[in-house]
Write a structure and sequence with these properties.
By secondary structure, the chain is mainly alpha-helical. It has 21 helices and 8 strands. A two-stranded antiparallel sheet has the order 1-3. It has a two-stranded antiparallel ribbon with strand order 2-5. Strands 4-8 form a two-stranded antiparallel sheet.
């Protein structure tokens, strides 16, 4: 059975091509920028590609930023405790159903990127790739399409594969799930095309643009899923060898210090600014909410007020848990102090306790501790763009997508799987992050648990943990054992906060359900729900 696809943007584009009988709708453009211009000229395609960057960044914007939080803040893993609010059904799993709005948004977000990338890719190929501007636009669109399919596959596995622009001639579609082989071949082909074309450097210091290194990093991730460790090693080491753009920062905390995350360790970040157009859609100054979601609501303690040095406005919803803190050597590992705030102080100068530490047991057996005094991550908090307005409920600090620390640990892991724990290369790459943090050099042999622990210590709240554990078949075991926190693990809690630990079902919660609206649109007889969610 075939289904008809209706897309509002397509309808608008179709109207623009109607004959101008009696000056119908007066389709004359008052500027040079028309839909036809965007898809039929080199300059137009270069502008259209910029639209892909804006679409990609919308996963983090304002009220829609739940998707970025779920993706980056290690939901359903062993290193996060969830209090309330943001995507609660996904965090706790006890009420998660195929009609979940955040899951629907995640699906439509990435398929929207795929649809726009399809238009750019086909238009570029029709124009001819001999033109340098056209070729670059084509390569960037290829990256975005491959990246979007990869993000979708990790979460859903069952996907509809489409590489053609939607036109009036192909509104009627046969929907059927693509095989994993078909999906991965598409992802790899798109990324390989991007790698072959993109440059290593960022042209004109245009930060936030995709480079060859970004595409190679994602290609290495794909190879790790396929257990193609030779390929993963090659792509990672190509990035290390280039040496023109990327290198490790002297200290881990240096990576996150500042509003503009443009240092040598960052491969790709979403760019935000308070200038018009730099803060997302909806309003000119929307920004993102990752900072306040991961910042403790310390300002609600009596004797406290908003303070930029404490991260500004805090909602206190998503935190590192006791298990994560237990992975650090608290005496040697500098990350334990530099990447987190463990203590809070009365900061209202008019209060008699000004400057004194707030006792963690202030709230006794009530719920105040988790909301107002729980230790927090400093990776995303913002003392820069909110310096003069610490009570603002949004942030314009850049958001990291990928950085070199992950590349090194991924290469370490690839050598470990291929050559064993005594691999000199695995040990060398492990020490890139381990020794930098003040720990004595590790001489091996490495174990998988050692590598997993280092991933957590250095890359928590950066979107690495969930796909890593799923890829290794450890997501269920780790979530059931450590997700959230129990009162027996953190005595300051008023109760257990570990519903994910209780409700995670093996063979089910390693994937998300296909959004019910999409099942209804495509037809369950053509595109059935994933087996564990039927």
């Amino acid at each position: 059975m075939k289904k008809r696809l209706y897309i509002a943007a397509l309808a608008i584009a179709a109207i623009a091509t109607l004959p101008s009988c009696e000056d119908f709708l007066n389709p004359e453009s008052k500027t040079d920028i028309t839909y036809n211009y965007l898809i039929s000229t080199p300059d137009g395609l270069s502008r259209a590609v910029i639209g892909l960057y804006n679409m990609e960044r919308q996963i983090a914007n304002g009220d829609g930023g739940n998707l970025y939080v779920v993706n980056m803040c290690d939901y359903n893993t062993d290193i996060m405790v969830f209090r309330a609010g943001t995507s609660a059904a996904i965090a706790r799993l006890n009420t998660l159903l195929p009609n979940n709005s955040d899951i629907e948004s995640f699906w439509t977000h990435h398929y929207s990127i795929i649809g726009k990338a399809n238009e750019i890719i086909v238009s570029a190929e029709n124009l001819g790739l001999d033109d340098e501007v056209v070729h670059k636009a084509w390569a960037e669109a290829k990256f975005f399409r491959g990246h979007a399919y990869f993000e979708l596959w990790k979460r859903f596995e069952r996907l509809y594969l489409n590489t053609l622009p939607t036109t009036v001639d192909n509104l009627v579609r046969d929907y059927k799930p693509a095989s994993t082989e078909e999906i991965f071949n598409q992802i790899k082909g798109d990324l390989e095309d991007a790698i072959a074309t993109l440059a290593w450097d960022i042209p004109n210091k245009d930060y936030g643009r995709i480079t060859k290194a970004v595409a190679k990093h994602v290609r290495a991730q794909v190879a790790m899923w396929e257990k193609d460790y030779d390929k993963a090693i090659k792509e990672c080491e190509d990035i290390f060898r280039d040496g023109t753009m990327y290198s490790m920062m002297p200290k881990t905390e240096d990576v996150f210090s500042g509003a503009d995350l443009r240092n040598s360790e960052v491969l790709w970040s979403y760019q935000f600014s308070e200038n018009l157009g730099g803060g997302g859609s909806g309003t000119p100054l929307m920004g993102h909410r990752l900072a306040i979601i991961t910042t403790t609501r310390y300002q609600s303690n009596a004797g406290c007020t908003f303070e930029a040095a404490q991260g500004g406005y805090g909602w206190g919803r998503v935190y590192p848990n006791t298990y994560l803190f237990g992975l650090y050597d608290k005496e040697k590992d500098t990350r334990y102090e530099k990447l987190f705030i463990h203590k809070f102080y009365y900061n209202d100068p008019t209060n008699a306790n000004y400057g004194k530490e707030i006792p963690a047991d202030l709230y006794g057996s009530s719920a105040g501790y988790l909301e107002k005094l729980h230790p927090m991550s400093k990776k995303h908090f913002d003392q820069w763009t909110n310096a003069t307005q610490p009570d603002r409920t949004s942030s314009f600090k850049d958001l990291i997508v990928y950085r070199l620390a992950e590349t090194y640990l991924m290469c370490c892991e690839a050598y470990f799987h291929r050559d064993g724990g005594s691999s000199s290369e695995a040990i060398e790459y492990y020490n890139k992050t381990w020794s930098r943090a003040g720990n004595a050099r590790e001489n091996g042999p490495l174990t998988l648990d050692m590598i997993l622990d280092e991933y957590a210590r250095v890359l928590h709240f950066e979107g690495v943990r969930w796909p890593l554990l799923k890829r290794l078949g450890l997501l269920y075991d780790r979530a059931r054992e450590h997700s959230g926190d129990l009162k027996s693990e953190d005595p300051y809690l008023d109760t257990d906060y570990a519903l994910c630990r209780d409700y995670f079902v093996k063979g089910k919660h390693e994937i998300w359900p296909i959004p019910q609206k999409q099942i209804d649109l495509m037809g369950a007889e053509n595109f059935p729900q994933s087996d564990p969610w039927k």
